[in-house]
Design goal:
Layout: H1 11-17, H2 19-23, E1 63-71, H3 76-86, E2 90-94, H4 102-113, E3 117-121, H5 126-130, H6 132-136, H7 139-153, E4 159-160, E5 168-170, E6 173-175, H8 178-189, E7 193-194, E8 199-200, E9 203-204, E10 208-209, H9 213-225, E11 234-240, H10 247-262, E12 266-267
Parallel strand pairs: 1-2, 1-11, 1-12, 2-3, 4-7, 8-11
Antiparallel strand pairs: 5-6, 9-10
């Protein structure tokens, strides 16, 4: 699936009802308007420890990479708390313009200060607020957008995920649509690694999880059985921070992770994905 459900039109309902996310110029489902990044607050965050790879995993282990897109936003700290309470690492793909005020910056700082979490680049403007055709058919300006996020987010590694598209560019191997291919090659040329996903926990109405915990596990098993993973025995799971801002949905995330733990999967951050350069 190349167009994420995260960018469906249903999301407009949620974003128009949440004033804060509107202020952040929320990444998904927003109107196609110009983005003003000139007056964003300055971030002064010291360097922190980077995630470390588990050293005790057996040679035939299956790895899971939990990843949350579009932060910092309401729900980021719910993901933070669930993952930290269960002792599992996670990657947060963040958007530069979402660091818009003291509250969002505090969420960013909390994630960045936790050694078991990784912040990665999800662009500065989320494709100029979802103008995908314009964004991807102008790869030079799109690349510049990612470079702005690189500086604003202070990402420790050159790891990115494209807005609204499941694209991969890693060690000369590309899996893209025709629309995103030029940007993927441009990112690769500057040393950036584009990492998509294997399984998506979809949502509706802007932030409501679609699959049940068992339903998502069944989808994961089906992807593995069909040998559709980008890399065998390495499962990248996409979700979005805002899906878990309600307590009942955070409980679903916790239950899902616990079931993965029961399978003895090894959890890791995206910098530990095979072939990623640091």
């Amino acid at each position: 699936m190349f167009m994420s459900s995260a960018d469906s039109s249903d999301g407009r309902k949620w974003f128009t009802s949440i004033a804060f996310v509107g202020l952040l110029m929320a990444s998904c489902n927003a109107a196609e308007t110009k983005v003003d990044t000139a007056n964003l607050p300055v971030i002064d965050t010291p360097a922190v420890a980077k995630p470390k790879m588990a050293t005790s995993a057996p040679a035939n282990a299956t790895y899971v990479y939990l990843s949350f897109d579009d932060g910092p936003q309401p729900g980021t700290m719910a993901c933070y708390k669930v993952c930290k309470s269960l002792g599992v690492p996670a990657t947060f793909y963040m958007i530069g313009i979402h660091l818009a005020d003291k509250r969002s910056i505090s969420w960013y700082d909390s994630v960045r200060a936790e050694p078991s979490f990784l912040i990665a680049n999800h662009s500065n403007t989320h494709a100029y607020r979802n103008r995908y055709t314009t964004y991807y058919t102008n790869p030079d300006s799109a690349l510049a957008d990612f470079m702005k996020a690189d500086q604003r987010l202070q990402v420790p590694y050159k790891i990115a995920r494209f807005p609204g598209n499941n694209a991969w560019a890693l060690q000369g191997k590309f899996r893209t649509t025709k629309l995103t291919r030029a940007l993927a090659r441009a990112m690769d040329s500057v040393g950036y690694q584009v990492l998509g996903w294997d399984v998506e926990w979809r949502f509706k109405g802007g932030d409501m999880p679609v699959q049940s915990v068992d339903g998502l596990l069944a989808e994961l098993d089906a992807v593995v059985k069909r040998k559709e993973l980008f890399t065998a025995r390495h499962i990248v799971i996409l979700a979005h921070d805002r899906m878990f801002r309600r307590a009942e949905d955070a409980a679903k995330l916790k239950a899902f992770i616990e079931k993965l733990q029961a399978r003895n999967y090894v959890f890791a951050t995206m910098d530990q994905y095979p072939g990623v350069k640091k």
